[in-house]
Specification:
13% helix; single chain; elongated; 109 residues; 4-stranded antiparallel β-sheet
Length: 109
Amino acid sequence: MAVMGFSVQGRCPMGCGETLMLGDGGFVTCCRLDCPRPDAASAILADADPEHLVELREQDFTVRHPLAERLDNALMSCTLHEHLQLMPPRQPGRYRVQADGDSFVWHAA
């Protein structure tokens, strides 16, 4: 969608469609007035951590995968989830996890 000549290729992550534009300060913004989070694309791009963020709890865990794993469907072949299900218990908390070949390196976050 062209808006004042500053349109940006791509789709709004909030589901608005092809409504992205380059806003003030060079931030990617959704131009729909009813968008629930017009700054979503810029916020996501600004938080492009290259590592996995894992939160371990007593009975389960959550994983935030790096955005780069969305490219070429690399997320579908990420082995971290399987590793977490099979590994011995760790101290509950947040960890940054780096892939290192077939293993993972853990750092407290």
